[in-house]
Amino acid sequence: MSAPTILILCTGNSCRSHLAEGILREALGQGYQVRSAGSKPAGYVHPLAIKAMAEIGLDISAHRSKHLDEFLNGEVETVITVCGNADQACPMFPGQVNRHHFPFDDPAHATGTEEEQYAVFRRVRDEIRAVFGAYAAGRKDEQGR
Fold first, then answer.
1. Cα dihedral: 40, 42, 44, 45 (round 10)
2. 83 partner at 20 to 30 Å CA-CA among 9, 35, 54, 121?
3. What are the Phosphotyrosine protein phosphatase I domain coordinates in residue numbering (predicted)?
4. Is position 145 within any domain?
5. Contact 111/120 with Cβ under 8 angstroms?
6. Total number of domains constituting the chain
7. 3-class SS of residue 126
8. Could you tell me if residue 120 is inside a domain?
9. How many helical (H) and strand (E) elements, i.e. helices and strands, does the chain have?
10. What percentage of residues in the chain have a pLDDT greater than 90?
């Protein structure tokens, strides 16, 4: 049996979904395929998202922004949306059993100096870490891991 795929969706696939993908992949460990995509991909991963993750020892610099259509032909067991727009635009995926919506502020819309913007990225990263850490713990409990 192949590892279940968990797909994390947001609109631009440049910040929140990549933060969540990196954090959830680390929290779950082996046995799961964790991916992210967007309904309207920005075409890049935000540099401040990469920096915020590096600060906690997670490297997402090789991630790329991709469209959710890339996953329509695969088996996706769980879809998690992290913004309202993606939640509304989310299609059903083959094999989908679970769907969750965990909304977070979009740090890409932060204003001010770079340091003020970075503070928003760090806050959202930490919020995502708390929510997805709890989600991962629940999944592990279900599996008896």
1. -80
2. 54
3. 4-138
4. no
5. no
6. 1
7. helix
8. yes
9. 4, 4
10. 76
Q: Do 53 and 36 touch, CB atoms closer than 8 A?
A: no
d(CA 136, CA 32): 10
Alpha carbon distance 94, 109 (integer Å): 33
Query: Strand, coil or helix: what is 81?
Result: strand
Predicted pLDDT at 140: 81
**Helical H runs in the chain?**
16-28, 47-55, 84-89, 114-143
Q: Identify the CATH number of the domain in which residue 124 sits.
A: 3.40.50.2300
- For 104-124, give one letter per residue: b (16+ CB within 10 A) or e: bebbbebeeeeeebbbbbbeb
pLDDT digit string, tens, across residues 4-40: 999 999 999 999 999 999 999 999 998 999 999 999 9
CA neighbor of 11 nearest in space, from 92, 106, 93: 106
Catalytic residues: 10, 83, 90
Give the domain extent around 131: 5-140
